[in-house]
From TrEMBL:
Classification lineage: Bacteria, Pseudomonadati, Pseudomonadota, Gammaproteobacteria, Alteromonadales
Protein name: Lipoxygenase, putative
GO molecular function, one term: oxidoreductase activity, acting on single donors with incorporation of molecular oxygen, incorporation of two atoms of oxygen
Entries under CDD domains matching the protein: C2, PYR_PYL_RCAR_like
Protein species of origin: Shewanella violacea (strain JCM 10179 / CIP 106290 / LMG 19151 / DSS12)
Keywords: Metal-binding, Oxidoreductase
Superkingdom classification of source: Bacteria
Alphabetized Pfam families for the sequence: C2 (PF00168), Lipoxygenase (PF00305), Polyketide_cyc2 (PF10604)
Span of domain Lipoxygenase: 291-839
Amino acid sequence: MEEERTMTDITKQATVQVKGIVNAPIEDVWKLYRPFGEMTQWWHIYKTMELAPPAEDKVGAIRTFSFKDRNMTISEQLISRDDTTHTLEYKMIKMEPSIPGLDGITTRVQMRSISAVQTEITWCNWVMAPSVVCSMIKAPQAQGYRDGITALNRFFNPSLGKVIVTLASIKDLPHSFPPVNPYVIVELDGENHQTAKPNFPYSSTFNDTFEFELLSRKGSLGFGVMDSCLGSDSLIGTVSLDLHDFENDKPKTLELALDQGASISVTIEMELNNDIDALPLTDKQQQFVSLKEMSDTINGVKDKLQKIVLNLLVEEKPRWEYDSYPVHPMPKMVKGLPRSQALSPHKLSRMGERVLEFSFSELELKQRLAEYPAGSLKAYGAFFGGYLPVPELLESWQDDSEFCRQLIQGLNPLMIEAVNSIEQVPEAMRELEAQGKGMSELIADKRLFLVDYKELAPFKCEDGKFFYAPYLLVYKQQLANNDTRLNVVAIQLERNEGINPIYTPDSNQPNRFMFAKIHVQCADNQIHQFLYHLGLAHLAIESMAIATHNSLPKEHIISKLLTPHFQDTIGINFLARQTLVAEQGAITQSTFALGTAQGVQMVSNGWKTYDFFKSSFPEQLKARGFDEEMSDGLQGYYYREDGYLIWNAIGNYTSNTVKSAYSDDAAVLADPAVQAWAKELADPDMGAMPGFPAEINSLELLSHTLQTIIWMGSAFHSAINFPQFPYTAVALNRPATLAKKMPEGEQDISAKYIAAALPNQKNAAFQCLLSWMLAMPSETSLANLDPLENDHPEISQAFAAEMKQISEKIHARNKQLSAAGKPDYSYLLPENIAASINI
Ligand SMILES: [Fe+2]
């Protein structure tokens, strides 16, 4: 302790004593308050403050300060300071102009820790002056100390905005004698105001308006109704309001009920800063809500699973009936759930195990979250641990090149297209450059690519969820050693008639650019999950499973060939229809920006132009400007490279099978089962598969048809499903929804704004759970497929041998990638390709 003897006997009762709370840990408050000559940083009433020479901050030091709003200079000397009791004492040694009769003031400030985040300040003084002088300066001194405590609190808790409280009246106070003479005290974050004491008892009208600074996220606005009595006033009743129930700029008038039937009429208005719509929950409230919502989500999934097993099975019939979605057109589905298609207890228990793995991993979520500073984006890492591996993307998701890499090696490799003419480039981007080259030069060099999220353009944002239908322009960046990678030229989020803002990586608005990338990922997520994954994989293949069951006898070679590729598809689709895209209470309604109805509508829109053969692997690539020979010059498109290995192997497999079963084209045409199967699938009242041949008249057409179906049921779905974990597990990388749009204006946006837009803990937990569940490995893969083992062992063995070769080739490539420090691509390894759409 530093100490110097003081002239004042401070054991006597203080002249002025003020107590107040600062919402910060005592160490932080003391550290700020402790330096004797440095109060200007947190208390803005001072014009100047400096220590007298030698300007050493120790006991005996003298500080002199002046004020902004009054012409007065005061000098004070530090007389003691104790870091263990958090006490500081000083005395006034000079005041100009002086107050006659005032001989001195000794002041003590003491701090006491109330909790880990709250400090109580006691600020008192002893005035050496005649009592008349003491009583004159007592009130302004007390107010000054209260202001000091408020200033400290404000420093640690910057204002979140304003709360304007208008007290209209009190009604129906109990009759008594003498009559009640009420007034009201209003308190928020340690600051309080009170109405004047009225002259007319019983029913009092005030119409007083008070303005508060909102300093904490606690949001508790308190009212105390007092009775002004002779002697000391007495408390009639208290009531408090939670400001989390109010929205920004939306005043609400309420009758607040007190005990004994009385009520006060108040109007509350909030003017929050930082573009927020409502007072954010405190960290504790947020954690509580999130954990509860997360367990509700998990329980919801479990309940649905149970319900389906217990209630929704229909009896097995020789022919399964087709059913239609309420939205048209859509892929056909089976009516009810045939008993044979219900997911087995083994399958359901594996899915349940996945949910449990997630739940167990999240048991320590709260503790892990506490390790991150509030509002930190790194806090999304808290979801991983335990059974869930930590994705590398937690570190790299912000990199532009990683963002672009995902277009060709990530969860959705189906969007990117080669740019072959300047007309393909959105107008607002045509003057841009990359690596010193204009757009035309990049096109000529086959270095320009576009991602056009046009499928989202017809839809509207609703329920505080925001998405765009962006354009993303990327180029092939030349690196040293002849290496290349994709990188961003620009992003355009909107499709206005007039001006459309463009976001580029080198702009002086880095946060706007980052937010634009996040919106692109959110848009990509909508199209990937609804259109490609649900619509053009899961739902599209269902009618083929139905027609195969209905028209092909079990012992038919084509039935044997195809059946493993429909295993569990109807069961899993049924589950999705009861949960993810149910007509009532669908999980995707609140968790996806697009919402369920619009998501299903996007599938329907896609189905309008769907064509069976155009959905084949090579045709999908060709439509976007890519081929097997890589004439487009794009390197690292492993979905394309590995996909061709698999596609061709499936082609050999189906061709061998068809040739073994039929001697020539005429024999195919003469097979009534195959013809009935094709007819059923093409029939608009049954399979209704657009572009499916109603008649199969050649070996080649049958082989190509089977190749297309097997690709769709195996590799296509696997490539766009199993990378769910890690890509969507990290909500930062692919948010399913965003709570904010890009604000207008030229200024950059804050990191806080982006954080507020990202999925909250409930939605982030949902993404994590869903991605973990959907990435559950299949027990049947293309590497262990053997449906023809007994009938045609040579075909089965040839396919297995080809799968083995492909596996070795991809493993060797991946080894090289790893050695070069690059991410590998394992999703089209035969052993990782699920034979059917079963998750
Ligand atoms: Fe799936």
